[in-house]
Structures are given as structure tokens and as C-alpha cells.
Amino acid sequence: MPLSELVRVAGTRWCIEECFQAAKGQVGLDHYQVRHWTAWHRHITLAMLALAFLAALAADATPVRTAQPNRPARSPDPIDLTVPEIRHLLGTLLSPPNISPRGLLQWSNWRRNHLQVPGRPPSRTQA
């Protein structure tokens, strides 16, 4: 086996590890207590389906940007929706909310506008 192939496979492994970490943290991939293979298989299938659903929503919500080499590093736009953000929004909407959907979206926009982004100076509340 050539060394280049081994390096490629080792690099691919890292992507898989990140996917499993996201699934454990976001959709409870490791939160199962089962005794049979069938139940384990159902849990893993539903967890991976939930992660795929959230990832598809995040990818669909990401605006298409054209390549602009002179694009400024700082942007007034909020960061893109992420899987954890979408999971939080869906969880809040599906449980009895204490705030209105409009208030929830305003909170999400405020939060994404104020997250630390490389190249963006910290706001006064974060300093």
C-alpha cells in the first residue's frame, strides 16, 4: 500500500470522528440503554437520521455566496445557522415555549450577530 493512500485514509478518519462527536452531542447517539441488536439499530438509525435532517436544514439555510477575493473580513451579517442553533430553535418551538416564535427568532439573530467571528472585534459585552 503506498504511503499516500495511508495518509488519505487517516485524513478521512478525522472527518468520521467529527461526525460521531456531533451526533453524540447534538442528537444523543450515545444515549441508549438497550439489550438487543434490533433496539440498538433503531436508536442509531433515528439518531443519524435526526443529525442528517439538522445538517440538511443548516445547509439549506446557508446563503449562496459568490467568491469575492476582496470581501471584507468583517461582515454585518450574522453567522450562518449551525446544527446546534437549529436544534435549539426546533427544541424551543416543539416544547411549550415561554416566548413567541418572533421573539425566539429575534434572540437567535441577536446571538448569531454577537458570536465571536475571526476578524470581528469582540463586542463590549464580551470584553
Give the secondary structure arrangement, pairings included:
Blueprint: H1 3-27, H2 37-61, H3 83-94, H4 101-114
Q: Sketch the major β-sheet.
A: none
Gross geometry = flat
List the uncertain runs.
Answer: 123-127
**What separation lies between the terminal Cα atoms?**
52 Å
What is the alpha-carbon Rg in Å? 19 Å
Number of helices: 4
Beta strand count: 0
Q: Helicity, in percent?
A: 55-70%
Total number of distinct structural domains: 2
Q: How much of the residues is beta strand, in percent?
A: under 5%
Order of helices and strands: HHHH
SSE class: mainly alpha
Can you describe what's shown?
This is Transposase. The protein is mainly α and 127 residues long. It has two domains: 1-62, no CATH class; 76-117. The chain is 60% helix and 0% strand. Helix 1 packs across helix 2 (37-61) and helix 3 packs antiparallel against helix 4 (101-114). The longest helix has 25 residues, at 3-27. It is flat and about 45 Å long. Mean pLDDT is 80; it is low at 123-127.
